[in-house]
Design goal:
Distance between the termini: 28 Å
Mean pLDDT: 86
Number of helices: 11
Length: about 260
Amino acid sequence: MRSLKTLGYILGLPVLLVLVWWASTLGKPNFFVPTPGSLVETFGEVWFGERFFTDVLPSLGRLVVGVVAAIVIGVVGGVLIGSIKWLRALLEPTLEFFRAVPPPVLVPVLMLLMGITDSMKVVVIISGCVWPVLLNTIEGVRAVDPVLSDSTHTYGIDGWARVRYLVLPSASPQILAGVRQSLSLGLILMVISEMFASSSGLGFTIVQFQRSFAIPEMWSGIVVLGLLGVGMSFIFQWAERNILRWYHGQKEVENAA
């Protein structure tokens, strides 16, 4: 019963939106908005074939590499900056400057410096995804319980052991909040980088469909992006539940008390 209720919550709004869409296309056909049936048919024809390997998989590869690299850079840099006061004071103005630069603006610059390559697209993704992780990690490290921090020093727990058993667990809720934000940013930047300079990928293909007035095919590409976003969200929620099992258990105990 609980599983059916959860499934109902997940599918309820999407089903309602599809019904509204279907009802709105019952009258005179609209060239720019396909019917649900024609979109499903086009989706199967376009993406269940060669395009899956030439466009979807390369885009996924760039997205995964970019996001993972951004998470590693953000966590390592955030732990260092959050733990060392003078380093944080030194870097804060510079970090605020680069954080304020919109990543899409860097695409033309990176094209000149790196050329139209997969590495350029990955760097674009990293340039936007790293900031939520970095800034949340810094704040998470700064918010470590001072009593626990003093206790680790008292017992001689320093270096990597302190980071592993105190800093990272204490900061992990905020780190994962930054990771959640970086996932959506990564998907957006993946598409933008492929729209600017690419010969394959979802962003490139969607723009090509639009320019050739292949409207159902264009909409099918947008659906693919939406499905990727949903899949990433479910994967993240599963990982978060496992990583922060102790945290959610602690919150349940506090709420019960």
